[in-house]
Structures are given as C-alpha cells and as structure tokens.
Design goal:
Blueprint lengths: L1 H17 L4 H11 L5 H16 L1 H11 L9 H16 L5 H14 L6 H14 L12 H8 L4 H23 L5 E5 L6 H10 L3 E4 L6 E5 L8 H4 L3 E3 L2 H9 L10 E5 L6 H10 L3 E7 L2 H14 L4 E5 L13 E7 L14 H4 L2 H18 L3 E11 L8 H10 L3 E3 L19 E4 L9 E8 L3
Parallel strand pairs: 5-6, 5-8, 6-7, 8-9
Antiparallel strand pairs: 1-3, 1-4, 2-3, 9-12, 10-12, 11-12
Helix pairs in contact: 1-2, 1-3, 1-5, 3-5, 4-5, 5-6, 5-7, 6-7, 8-9, 12-13
Amino acid sequence: MENDIRMIALMTLVDVLENDKYSHIVINEVLKKYQYMSKTNRAFFKRLTEGTIEYKIQLDYIIDCFSNTPSKKMKPIIRNILRMSVYQIKYMDSVPTSAACNEAVKLAKKKGFYNLKGFVNGVLRNIARNIDNIKYPDKEKDKVKYLSVMYSTPEWIIKKWLSDYGSDITKQILKASFSKKKTTICLNTNKTTKDKLIDDLKKESIKYEECEYIKNALRIEDYDYISKLSSFKDGDFFVQDESSMIAVESAGIDTIKGDNILIVDVCAAPGGKTMYASCKLKDRGEIISRDISEYKTSLINDNIKRCDFNNVKVQVQDALILDEELINKADLVIADLPCSGLGVIGQKADIKYKTSKNVLEELVQLQKDILNVVKQYVKPNGVLLYSTCTINIDENEKNVEWFTKENKDFKLESLDDYISKKVQSKTSKKGYLQLFPQNETIDGFFMARFRKIQC
C-alpha cells in the first residue's frame, strides 16, 4: 500500500510542480478521492506531498550537488521521484533510507523509465550517505542564496523582504512559514455557544486551545476529516484564520448604528469574512456577498447554508464592474482583494513559486482598479475595509498611500478601538496594520480602515 501512496504522491507533485495546479486544491481532491485509506496512510501522503512542495528549492539544490544532470534538465517524473525521495531521507525519520531508495527505483520502473533506475538509485544512495555533510551556501558571503536554499524561497522574494522589512522580520516570516499550524475555527454565535462547542469537540476527542486575539476562535488538531465532525456538519463553526478575523474586527461592525445596515463583501469566496461579519451583524441588516464566478459563489453558498446565515445574499458579480444600484448605499464595504498571497505560504507553499515580479505589478494595478469601483458603494460616513493576505509593501502600504492621496473624501481611521491590544502597533493607530506570520498561530495579513467623509 505504501508504494501505491508514493505513486499517488508522485502524480500529485507532477500536477502541482510541473503542471502548475494549486497544491491545496489537488491535495484536497486526492484526500477526498481516497477517503477509504487509513488515517495513517493519508497522513503519510499529506506529509510527503506538502513537505516536498514546501522544500522544493532546497531539494533541487541537494540533488544538484550529487547529480551530473541538473534537476531542471531531468524528465519531470524523474525529477519529482528524486525530490520526494530526498525529502523522505532528510525529513522523514520514520522512513528507512533503504526504503526511500528502493521505492524510488520501483516508481521509475513503473513509470516506464527502466533505463534510469540505476541513475535514480545511484544519486539517492550517494545523497543518503552524505545527507549530514552537504555544503550549503555560506550565509555570510551570500545571505540571499543561503536564505533561499535553507527556507526554499525564491531569491527575488528574499531580496524584497530584506529590503522592505530588514533581516530580523524576514527571518521571522521564513521560519513561521515552515511551522505547522493547527486549524483555526470560528464559533458560529448565531447557532451555539463557545462552551457547548467545546463540549462537542471533547466528545469527538478533538484537541483544542484558545486563540490569543479573538475570543470566539479556537485552534483544533487530531481530527480525521473536519467535514465529518458533527459540530461542523451542524454549522456550529467555520474555518478561518485568526488574522482574517482580526481584519473583520477592524471594520467595527458592532459600532455601526441602525437596524438596516448594509455590508457589501466584494471578493468574498470562500466566505470566511462574510460569515464572521454575519455573526457580528446578526439581525440588524444584510450582507451582500459577491465573487466573480458561479464556482466561487458556490463555495460561499455551501458555507452559508451549512451555517444557516439568513442575513446573507450571495451574488455573482465582477468587482471591476460598477453596480450603480449600490452607489452610496453601503455602511461597510469589505474589499479583501486578489493578492500575491505571500502571507499564507505556510499553508499554500506553491504560491511562492507561482508568483513573480510581473504578477505583483499586475496585482497592484488590479487592486487599484477594484478600489476605484467599490469605493463608490460606501455611503457618507461609511467605512471601506481594504485587506490582503500578503506581505508586500507595494500591495499594502503603498496602495494605502495611493488611495489616500487620490481620494480626499476618504481618511484613514485608527484600528485600535476595534482590535486586540496584543496586535496593535504604531501603524494601527494611523489606520493600517501589517500582521506577520507567527509560529503555529496566525498568517501574514494586511488591513486598512477608511472612513468616507460626510460632506
């Protein structure tokens, strides 16, 4: 069975690393397809695929130290057999080195590369003999190369973070991106209480702990499939990172006055912010939750129906196209916009390989274009919340600077009245906050709060 798992893992890696598919989607589809496998075997598959993707740059570096053929010139199947095998040798103590090598040879033969089985075997056994003596780049002579290889992150991202945030924060970001985070869930206060949810989790032997910044959030672990938990099926909670909840907190929904409040979430899928906002809003108004396609809105609808949020209306709408009926109507616009996602590479490691400088430039312009449209929905004295799940000054602070300069009818407003004192900073008082990823807790996230001036 283990060899079957390795074959499934190999083809998953080819899909992600060679065919440019998204890791979280492919891995989740495989886990769903092979639900009949034991929890141990699924855990092995998940660890092997996610770890290989996470450490791709470092694994290629190690392979290149021992192969006369550079990894980038190898056949994709062979390249990924070697990657996943080196990962097992270096990072999976439960796998004997001999097993990693032997199973790699079997995979090469099964995929029709019988003539390369000797090459695969030779490279891997050489690596195995020298795994503790590999010469990595000198961190004093070439800091960028060293950090790139040791934390398997493209050099251009390392250079940008060092330039924008300095050495200490860059190292914090890199280390945190490799920490294994527990699943963060948010209590559906419309359906249950925190005490009852905790009791239900205990009944299903789920380990939990309190979150640091949001009182109605928990971190859980040791579950098999989250969708099989009774409390999940009953809609008593939804999955959302604490950093994303902090962004919604900064919108100050509790402080909005009135009984006919309108909130518009313009790029809402899969619906986490919409649902947290719904818990905050209760029966005091309505949330219009939108995204660009039927597929994306179906993700929102699935969550909304499971959790029974009756104050949410889901719509397909391109955020770049102005909806004239909403001009000056919204008390709050949540604009959590498409971004490079560099704040969540701990959960979706392939993001760091898919992003480029050109993509960043395009995203910055897209964010500006969307903001120019959706700002028109904010009523006088209403609030525009701009957020991203990235760590990039160009998409975050510089976009805030641009928006403030171009829109004199909006002003930044302090976040400190709405968010936990534990996350407040020098900039949160000015109206924006960059959260950096923290070990085992929160992702990287950015938020800015604008008030539309009443003329």
